[in-house]
Task: structure prediction
Amino acid sequence: MKLGEALARWPVVRQLREGDPLGLGRAAQSERSRALEPRSDEADHVVQSICPYCAVGCGQLVHVKDGEVTHIEGDPASPISRGRLCPKGQASKSYVQSPLREYKVKYRRPYGTRWEELPLDDAMGMIVQRILDTRTASWDDELNRTMAIGNLGGATLDNEENYLIKKLCVGLGIVQVENQARI
Amino acid sequence: MGSNMAENHPVGFQWVMEARERGARVFHIDPRFTRTSAMSTDWIGIRAGSDIAFLGGVVNYILENERYFEEYVKHFTNAPAIIHEDFVDTEDLDGLFSGWDPEKGKYDPTSWQYAGMEAHGAAGQREQGFETRGEQSGHGGHGGGLQHGEPPEEDLELKHPRCVFQLLKKHYARYTPELVADTCGCSVDDFLEYCSAICDNSGRERTGAFVYSVGWTQHTVGVQYIRTAAIVQQLLGNMGRPGGGIMALRGHASIQGSTDIPTLFNILPGYLPMPHTETYGDFQNFIDANTSPTGWWGHFDAYWVSLMKAYFGENATEGNDWLFHELPRVDDDNSVYWTTLQMLDGNVKGYIIAGENPAVGNSNSKAHRLALAKLDWLVVRDVVEIESAAFWYDSPEIESGELRTEEIPTEIFFLPAATHTEKDGSFTNTQRLLQWHWQATEPKSDCRSELWFYFHLGRMIKQKLAGSEAPRDKLIKALRWEYPTHSAIQEPDAEAVLQEVSGREIESGTFLDGYPKLKADGSTLCGCWIYCGCFKDGVNQTARKEPYWEQGYVAPEWAWAWPANRRLLYNRASADPDGKPWSERKKYVWWDEEQKKWTGLDVPDFEEDKEPGYVPPDDAKAEKAIAGDHPFIMQADGRSWLFVPQGLEDGPLPTHYEPHESPFDNSLYSQRANPRRQQFERPENPYNPVGSEPGSELYPYVATTYRLTEHHTAGGMSRTVPYLSELQPEMFCEVSPELAKEAGLEHGGWATIYSSRSAIEARVLVTDRIPPIEVQGRKTHQIGLPYHWGSRGLTTGGAANDLSSIALDPNVHIQEVKAFSVGIRPGRRPRGAALPRFVEEMRSRAR
Amino acid sequence: MLDSYGPEAKERMGFFTDTSVCIGCKACEVACKEWNLVPEDGLVWTGESYDNTSELGANTWRHVAFIEQSDPLRWLMSSDVCKHCTHAGCLDVCPTGSLFRTEYGTVVVQQDICNGCGYCVPACPFGVLDKRHLPRQDPPALPVLTKEEDGRVWKCTLCYDRLKGGHEPACAKACPTDSIQFGPLDELRERADKRLEKLQAENWNGARLYGRDPGDGVGGFGAFFLLLDEPEVYGLPPDPVVTTRDLPSMYRSAAIAAGAVVAGVLAAFVGGST
Result:
């Protein structure tokens, strides 16, 4: 830094030159403050989404940078929410990045006392086998069904997901398909 | 009523606040003075479980004071219909309607029918030994015997003693302001103030609306709560009109969607019934049993066949009755509570839980945890490790020794799920709006969407069974299961699924633009008839995001509402019988005489060119049999039903019953609670002594459960979030200063709350917001219990649902957690094995 | 001080928090924390109605107070925030130039400068300024926590970064009922006057404006309120005064004294040379 520049940054000089003799305004503004810009403006892309909590269905804007969600706020275009969110909707980023979030399959064997690791593919294969074995053992020829298997959940899921769940369960003769609409 | 909107639907509440600012009266009628009450112009405190008495009083007020909207009532409701001469009201049978079979514990609804109609259904189904029931028959279809959509006998003067209007008058005559005050615990003045306000805000120029939530549904007589409001709104002419109606505020992002495209045992997409265990004989009998000759349910066959074509493609043919005979059959009740009890009995071996937490969220959650410990295998899919995945090493039962980890046989697979930001898809919100959300980021590591899980599960199963000749595998082999996938993890294309839901003409592949295009000949496929057209023109209509400021207040270009993008159902009722708006102020949809069509601010919920004066010819079928002045086109007679001749398990008219567990007897009848309620008394689900029974004094208080703004349902999506957990970091109970004094509770201290099921502890919040009330001449206390907590997460605590029981509404199998009885005492709960001992000791003292 | 920005000066921006429509949802608290990456502040149940945040602090820049009243039954809710005073004591006493007045007239702590001396903490008549103490680490704290954040003073910036990008502050954006309104202060004052008039015409018991008056002890707030009761009821000082009010006269006295010393010294020198 040249001496002149350094001198120009010297607070007393800035205070006098910038008409801020008390040094409480512009003269006190740091480089960081001067260059500050909103984090959301740095997003690679912004996705229109819908809040995952209650059934009001507020619009959300999900800001993404480098493949990570950096910010979620209300979508101003929504005629339902007009850009506003409640504390839960506003906490959506913390929800998708919860410190308690699980990223790996966990397996507990019968009578086991701890969780074990299990590759996802293996888990899928084992679940398929469990379903088929239980189904075969409990099949009711007359009523085309198994009463030994149930499926629970749906109100937090997408319509497309619920559609596949019900369709698959009908195909398999699993009739005990239920969700939060009862609770 | 039955809703705490400001707390549980805060962003929706902005519209209520705006209405208040513009002069609307906002009444909050609730046991607790909540954040909603604080924002309302009026709060009326009532006893939890007494809403039908309150609303029945309103019906009586309207009728006694002739405040009903006469023209609307005469033309748009079934008030003039004359009911079967065998009908006997609860007022004459001490709390039972005619048709009660004490042995079966069920009603035979024959005597509830319109006079002059065949006993039941269209095709003599009863003779054949089967009937439509519960939710499946609630469409108001099945109007067998209706001639061109009109009840056989009517009295437009509303004077005939057996016309619906007169029956209503008689039924509610005892619901006087004094009875309301004595049953609900409110003042006569407050009640009358409410009555006059809602009447003053109804009619041609004004409309009034009800908002409810699970505060109404979670009762053993829950459906009838909503029915009572429906009667009020019909009498006041508030249905199908802007600013009117009954708004159900639902609790999850797509709970409406998961009912429309159900993950429910008894229905298929679009509220089509699952076939029952009865033998239907041939397929046509099934179709006939579910088809109404009049109204839009007249096309049941088209909806059904199109669904089967979506499910089974070319494998479903007319020749094989569209695979009807291979479909699985359901019993009267295979709901979640029934399944849980079956687990306890060892009959259910495997369970998949995807985005639900019964170990905290379901009533008598202890029974659910014990049930999970009986399974052979369990799959839990969630974002975090919820209580339902951890019960085998972390639960009150492990602590008490009732369960021992090394003795639990259950094999458990925990599979991490993707969040809404990690997948494409649509949610259906509380007002029937399908809203698409786009994927923002890729799910990490093993996290996957449910779409991925179920698609690949199905794909792998079908692969395994490809060579099977077993009859049981015929249907799964016939299932059409081809969806394109994308990305490295082979995520199925959610839009491809939505396209199947929306429907196509099979041969041309053309997207259908609405359910009137559906055919019963197998030429169309549609995964959910009420969603038909949500992908019309090949455009994802649910992803439309036209900003609200670019359109009128109805905002039809934002997302897509079922059916047919209609924002307000039955909106033909916003015009008078002649098709003119009831008033300029409340103009919405009307008949344009010049253009000879219905028009307005919304998509008319009526055939566009059906004139208001249309009278159906004698041979008219389906919607053609509905007259031009009958707006309720899904009903067989085109009217809204004040009196429900068919479709409800527990009576054609709502009447006040005490909650299953109430410290009071019924002041109206010796029949204390809903006679048809579902009860399951067994060791895992004992009930408290009630009313004047000995021992009820041990459980003397009315408990009611609820949610807080800062948390979400069973906590999986909020107790795991630091910013939410810190705002409500601990389980607490709300009690009045009087109860605190009576029970020796200290503000900020601990209380143990107990029922016959279990005991939990909570911090004590003493507040004037839950005042004691006087009912039947005695003072009683209510205890408020948020139900968010469990043993996992950043903040943990007692689960309120450990206290409640499994006692259900007979129509929809929903549990009663908004009013049940408990005891309370100071201090923390007993630990370890002392906990079940304490609960048992209280029970034995009660016996 | 806005003059110091010359042509870069903006209209003075602020908040008008209208508590008559506050539903106590705390969206403002969460929105603020999400945007500003403010750490979780401990999981402590207080028993103070539904208020488990208790007060403004380094880790709480919006705080919703809940006041239960029994006769008549009322539940008052109010979202408190830094007042961004016209005469800000914190600004006056900051020795490092960390606190400064922005081109929007708001008062902001610059984290790259603050050394945690804490002079500003007692200078605030509202107790807003606070040194950050890290919350306990178990259960896990937020990933944003780093060591360098410990010990400095943190408070509401009126979302200075968002303002620079043309966005409204996070809390105002989130507020479901528009209880928190953001805008040019002059406009907000006008709007508040009209609002008060309406409420008084509707006989709202106790409605008043707090911090709207430029003639008060801190020269008016940049973030002012419509309350439904006395400020004390909400835990707010009824008549706040800038703690550095007497500084100018103190400086004058000090200057006179200093002048006398200088004169004396000079006299001594002068005297010495003669």
User: Anything to note?
Assistant: Chain C touches chain B through 34 residues (CB under 8 Å). The two ends of chain C are 47 Å apart (CA to CA). Confidence is low (pLDDT under 50) at residues 143-148 of chain C.
